[in-house]
Amino acid sequence: MAGEKRFRTCFLGGFNKTDVNVYIEKILQEFEEKLKEKDNERLALKEQYKQINVKYVQLSEKAEEVSREREKIADALIKAQEKAMNIVEEAKLQANEEKKSLESIIEHEKEKLVDIREQVKNLKGLVSNVLKDFDSKLEVLIEHEAFKAITEEESKEEAAAFTGEML
């Protein structure tokens, strides 16, 4: 068998003590070397574990920080959205109030316009009556002046005829 150690035999049928001691020392030395290697590996793994653990803690802290930042951002976005909705709602309410106010003003102005139109209609009738009255008075005055002119003419003619008779 490979790797199997064969010892020389001694005179009385035992093994050669020196060979056995050399072999045991060799095995002990190999075992100690392997043990040192395993200790070195263990220490290296322990150091690697510490480094990984430190990185894990750092990453965990960063993850928590990112999570807190996300929460802050989410809260800020929610607050901003709520504020925007409130602003929009207030603007709608204000616009509705302004619309009602303007509609009220328009209705009032329409009423004023109806009143003014009624007044204009009444004034037109009044002006028409005044013009008719003025026209009739003017006709009377013209007729009176015409009659007066005719009467004066006739008086002048009569006076001329009378003065012509007298002469």
Question: What does this protein structure show overall?
Answer:
With about 170 residues, this protein is mainly α. Helix content is about 90%, strand content about 0%. The chain is built from one helix and no strands. The termini are far apart.
Low-confidence stretches: none
Oligomer: single chain
Mean pLDDT: 87
Number of strand segments: 0
Which descriptor suits the 3D outline?
Answer: rod-shaped
Integer-rounded radius of gyration:
67 Å
The largest sheet, given as strand count, sense and whether it forms a barrel, is:
none
Q: Helix content range of the residues, please?
A: over 70%
Strand content: under 5%
Instruction: Name the helix and strand elements from N-terminus to C-terminus, one letter apiece.
Output: H
Distance between the termini: 199 Å
Number of helices: 1
Structural class: mainly alpha
Describe the structure concisely.
The protein is mainly alpha-helical. Helices cover 90% and strands 0% of the residues. The termini are far apart.
What is this structure's SSE topology?
Elements: H1 17-166
Keywords:
single chain; 167 residues; mainly alpha; 90% helix; rod-shaped
